[in-house]
Design brief:
Blueprint lengths: L1 H15 L3 E3 L4 E3 L1 H40 L2 H5 L4 H7 L1
Antiparallel strand pairs: 1-2
């Protein structure tokens, strides 16, 4: 999350900059560049966020798979079902 927050903050900082810069003989209109940089920073943040989510999902799937393999078949067969729990009430 730390990297994605940095990209979103960078995007906000870029948008807060002046769009037009005045010099003695010329002025620079940087509004288009400012919007493009902000959009790039936002898309980088989103792509990092998505990659982190995919990584977390695959790690969680591996953990659950390893936990389910650790359980013995004998233990699984004696696990109460919803029907037996309702009957016991």
């Amino acid at each position: 999350m730390q990297y994605t927050e940095k990209f979103y903050k960078l995007s906000k900082q870029i948008m807060a900059l002046d769009g037009v810069v005045h010099y003695d003989m010329i002025y620079l209109d940087c509004d288009d560049i400012k919007h493009e940089l902000s959009a790039l920073a936002t898309s980088l943040g989103q792509s990092v966020h998505e990659k982190l989510a995919v990584t977390n999902r695959t790690e969680n799937a591996r953990y659950w798979q390893s936990i389910s393999q650790l359980e013995s078949p004998h233990r699984r067969s004696h696990r109460p079902t919803m029907r037996t729990l309702v009957k016991s009430l």
